[in-house]
Design goal:
Blueprint lengths: L6 E5 L4 E5 L7 E4 L2 H18 L26 H34 L3
Helix pairs in contact: 1-2
Length: 114
């Protein structure tokens, strides 16, 4: 039995939990609850392990997480902040589209044997 570490975040736009397993190609999914996300991640990992047999013996080793501090919004004038908010909103939508497309073309497609 292999053990993997997943990175989980909550997407405010879609109101879904998004889970990714670093180092495992195609191992990411989303769900409305953490319990459902855990089950989805388990299913995706089982599919990926069927496709990539080497994961059974050499799973990625979790090292840790880091928090990186960046400049706060307080340093930007109000007009610049509103422009950045629009930009970040567009990026959030684009990211959801990429996650959705990747899930269906990579997670299911590449991890399932044909």
């Amino acid at each position: 039995m292999a053990t993997f570490t997943a990175y989980i975040e909550y997407d405010e736009v879609s109101r879904l939990y998004v889970g990714t397993v670093p180092g495992v190609p195609g191992a990411h999914t989303q769900a409305e609850t953490l319990d459902e996300l855990q089950q989805n991640l388990k299913e995706v990992l089982e599919l990926c392990m069927d496709e990539h047999q080497e994961l059974r013996e050499h799973s990625p080793r979790f090292v840790g997480v880091q928090q990186i501090e960046v400049a706060s919004w307080l340093r930007f004038p109000q007009s610049t902040r509103s422009q950045w908010n629009v930009c970040f909103s567009a990026l959030a939508v684009a990211r959801l589209v990429v996650v959705y497309l990747t899930m269906y073309s990579v997670s299911v497609g590449s991890c399932m044997k044909t």
